[in-house]
Design goal:
Distance between the termini: 45 Å
Helix content: 40-55%
Largest sheet: 9 strands, mixed
Strand content: 15-25%
Shape: elongated
CATH architecture of the largest domain: 3-Layer(aba) Sandwich
Radius of gyration: 30 Å
Structural class: alpha/beta
Number of strands: 11
Order of helices and strands: HHHEEHEHEHEEHEHEHEEEH
Number of helices: 10
């Protein structure tokens, strides 16, 4: 069979008849007459040089060759449908500009999701920035940002927030640390030098509430700005790191060990924040859906 004379409609007719077992249903689906569908099938068999159907009274049954050919045909038709859907999606993809910010410590986590959004919406123009929470809120209020992703315990009344992902806290240790062999309690952690987020951060406040005291009362505290810095200090033997479980496996070298402290030590919600009323934008809704995927 010459590929240049290949007719996709013959394959569609063959698939429908093979699935339904008769010409009438296939003709209705293709909006053609029964003789026209029958003619397509005979032409297909003639060009292939094989018999695809055993013709019984009021029913067509696939031959062994026909059953094998059906699998190949369905793969071709599915691929063609995906190609057309992809083209339609790209041409119908909403365009426009979105300005988004994330925090330094978790930008890596959301980067693949933002990348997926850009692949699905090639007409979108995305401006990505790294901001602290306070800077992000100011940018949202001033209209310089459309959405910000991070830890936001509270937001102004003109803004909305929705949780994208919750994370617990984890403790990071050197491989031979004795605490790895026992259930970890707040009292055990407080006897160690801790590497933690600054006292003004929501992560630190969550941990402080879990252990029942402010760590600033202790002398043996190292404050850090990111989970990656915490892992570096742990690797140097300077203490036990308290980090987001979200970052475990990304920010930490393979020679370190970590223990998920679970919900009893509190959870940290990462949220998307945007101006009230802005969610009517199809592009923003699409981005929020991808971030929460």
């Amino acid at each position: 069979m010459d590929i240049d004379s290949f007719d996709l409609k013959r394959l569609q007719a063959f698939q429908l008849v093979a699935r339904h077992g008769n010409l009438r249903l296939a003709a209705a689906r293709l909006n053609q007459t029964i003789p026209a569908v029958s003619s397509r099938l005979k032409r297909l068999e003639h060009e292939l040089g094989v018999t695809l159907f055993e013709r019984l009274p009021n029913r067509l049954v696939l031959t062994e060759v026909g059953r094998h050919f059906l699998g190949e045909v369905e793969a071709v038709l599915q691929r063609a449908e995906r190609a057309l859907a992809s083209l339609t999606e790209a041409s119908a993809s909403p365009g426009g500009r979105l300005a988004i910010s994330t925090g330094f410590d978790h930008a890596w986590y959301f980067a693949p999701r933002i990348g997926n959004f850009l692949r699905h919406y090639p007409n979108a123009d995305l401006d990505l920035r790294i901001f602290r929470a306070a800077e992000a809120l100011r940018g949202l209020m001033a209209g310089e940002l459309d959405v910000s992703v991070g830890i936001f315990p509270s937001v102004p009344k003109t803004l909305e927030k929705e949780v994208i992902v919750d994370t617990t806290l984890s403790a990071v240790f050197l491989p031979k640390d004795p605490l790895l062999k026992v259930p970890i309690t707040p009292a055990q952690l407080l006897r160690r030098k801790l590497i933690v987020f600054p006292s003004h951060s929501d992560t630190r406040k969550t941990f402080d509430r879990a252990v029942g005291k402010r760590l600033l009362q202790q002398k043996s505290v190292i404050e850090i700005a990111s989970c990656q810095t915490a892992s570096t200090f742990v690797e140097m033997g300077l203490g036990v790191g308290i980090v987001h479980s979200l970052c475990v496996g990304h920010a930490h070298p393979p020679n370190l060990r970590w223990v998920d402290l679970g919900s009893k030590f509190g959870t940290i919600p990462f949220c998307a924040v945007y101006r009230k009323g802005s969610k009517h934008s199809p592009l923003l809704r699409a981005l929020l859906k991808e971030l929460a995927a």
